[in-house]
Amino acid sequence: MSDKPYKMACSDDNCGWIGDSNKILTAPDPFNPGQDLRACPDCRYQTLHTCCDEPLCYNQDTCGTPTPTGYRRTCGKHVPKLWRSPSPTT
Ligand SMILES: [Zn+2]
Ligand SMILES: [Zn+2]
Q1: Mean pLDDT (whole number) for 36-63
Q2: How far is the CA of 65 from the centre of ligand 1 (A)?
Q3: What is the CA(56)–ligand 2 centre distance, in A?
Q4: Entry pTM
Q5: I want to staple 52 with a disulfide (CB 3.0 to 4.6 A). Which of 11, 65, 75, 77 is the partner?
Q6: Is the pLDDT reported for residue 2 higher than 80?
């Protein structure tokens, strides 16, 4: 368990919990041996999502962009524009 905690947020409108990944509830997933179910520590729904890499942004990280300084996971708003690789045309 050397993973650094990362930001997570609850998608439930009535909850809105945000916090570190080491604060969430986990339980072994009976349907996927070796995997964990992850639930919000406040509302206990499995409505958590990982967050955009921007420090103050808690939108879901829907985009993954490789950059010279590492892989960035961001929401659509914060995609690193400078490093967007030219789309290869096939
Ligand atoms: Zn919640
Ligand atoms: Zn963002």
Answers
A1: 96
A2: 28
A3: 8
A4: 0.76
A5: 75
A6: no
Give the distance (Å) from ligand 2 centre to CA of residue 60: 8
Give the DSSP letter string of the chain: --PPP-EEEE--TTT--EEEGGGSEEEE-TTSTT-EEEE-TTT--S-EEEB-SSTT--SB--EEEEETTEEEEE-GGG--STTPPPPPP-
- Among 21, 74, 81, residue whose Cα is nearest residue 10: 21
Q: Tell me: pLDDT of 68 over 70.
A: yes
Pairing of β 36-39 and β 25-28: antiparallel
Centre of ligand 1 to C-alpha 34, Å, is 24
